[in-house]
Amino acid sequence: AQRGILGQITSTSVVGNFGPEAKRSAISLMEQGLVHIIASDTHRSTGPRAPLLAEAMTEAAKTVGYDRAEAMVYSAPKAILDGEPVYLPDIANQSKGRGWRFWKRT
C-alpha cells in the first residue's frame, strides 16, 4: 500500500483448500506484509470455491494477528469500494528469518 500496490489472496488458499503449497505461499506472502486483502473467488455458496472468509480470517490471524486479519477481510475492501486509502494494523506475529523464501525454489 505504501507504493500504491495492493496484494490480494483468495480465502480458499489461506485455509488450504487449494492444497498445502498454496497455503504455504499465502502464509509467506502475509508474513512479508504483501497481502492487504483476503477475498473470495466464490462461484457458489458451497463447494471448493465457497467464500470461507470467516475461516480465512481465523487462519490469517495466526500469522498476522487478529486486527490485521480482520482488516484484510473487512476494512481494506470497504476502503477500496469507498475510494479511500487502505490502512492495515502492523503484523502482530512477525516471524523472523523467513524473508523472501517464498520466491526461492527449494
Structure description:
The protein is mostly helical. The protein contains 5 helices and 2 strands; from the N terminus they run βααβααα. A two-stranded parallel ribbon has the order 1-2. Helix 3 (53-64) packs antiparallel against helix 4. It is globular. The chain starts with 7 loop residues before the first strand and ends in a 25-residue tail after the last helix. Mean pLDDT is 85; it is low at 96-106.
Secondary-structure map with pairings?
Blueprint: E1 8-10, H1 11-15, H2 20-31, E2 37-39, H3 53-64, H4 66-73, H5 75-81
Parallel strand pairs: 1-2
Short account of what is shown:
The chain has 106 residues and is mainly alpha-helical.
Order of helical and strand elements: EHHEHHH
Largest sheet: 2 strands, parallel
The largest beta-sheet arranges its strands as 1-2
Fraction in helix: 40-55%
Low-confidence stretches: 96-106
Radius of gyration: 13 Å
Count of runs of 4 or more consecutive helical residues: 5
Report the oligomer. single chain
Briefly note the structural class of the backbone. Answer: mainly alpha
Q: Distance between the terminal alpha carbons, to the nearest Å?
A: 29 Å
Indicate the proportion of strand residues.
5-15%
How many β-strand runs?
2
Calculate the mean pLDDT score and round it. Answer: 85
Q: Tell the overall outline.
A: globular
